[in-house]
Design a protein that fits this description.
The structure is a single chain. Helices cover 71% and strands 0% of the residues. By secondary structure, it is mainly α. The protein has one domain. Helix 2 crosses helix 3, helix 2 crosses helix 5 and helix 3 crosses helix 5. The protein is flat.
Length: 120
C-alpha cells in the first residue's frame, strides 16, 4: 500500500474532520476568553497570521499522542513519526473539510459562496 493510500483512508479523513472541529472549538474559545479580557484577537496579526494557521498542525500532532489512535504502519513506530503523521493530517484537514462540505451541499442542491471549490 502506497503512502497516499495509507494517509487517505476513511478513518484518517474522519480524523481530519475531527481536527477541524477541535481547531474551531479552540479558536472560538480563545476569542471569547480574550473578548472577556477586553482584547480583540481578530485584529491581532500574531493571532490571524501565525497562531490560527498553525492550529491544525499542532492539534494533529497532539492527537497522535493518543495511543489508541489508528495510525498507518509506516508512521506507527516512534513518537516523532506519529507526530509527523498528525502534522500531515493537520495540513490537509481544512481541504478535506471544504471538499466534504462541497459534496454535501451539492447533494442538497445548495451553493456556498465561501467554498472556493464551487463549480460555476
Amino acid at each position: 500500500m502506497g503512502v497516499l493510500e495509507q494517509i487517505l483512508t476513511l478513518s484518517n479523513l474522519i480524523l481530519c474532520l475531527g481536527i477541524v472541529a477541535l481547531v474551531w472549538i479552540q479558536r472560538r474559545g480563545a476569542e471569547v476568553f480574550a473578548h472577556k479580557l477586553g482584547k480583540d484577537l481578530k485584529n491581532s496579526e500574531i493571532w490571524t497570521k501565525f497562531l490560527v494557521p498553525i492550529g491544525p498542525l499542532g492539534t494533529g500532532a497532539l492527537l497522535t499522542l493518543i495511543p489508541q489512535l489508528p495510525i498507518p504502519e509506516m508512521f506507527a513506530e516512534g513518537m516523532l513519526n506519529r507526530m509527523v503523521f498528525g502534522v500531515a493530517l493537520g495540513l490537509i484537514s481544512t481541504l478535506v473539510y471544504r471538499l466534504v462540505k462541497k459534496n454535501i451541499l451539492d447533494k442538497l442542491g445548495k451553493k456556498d459562496e465561501k467554498t472556493p471549490y464551487v463549480e460555476e
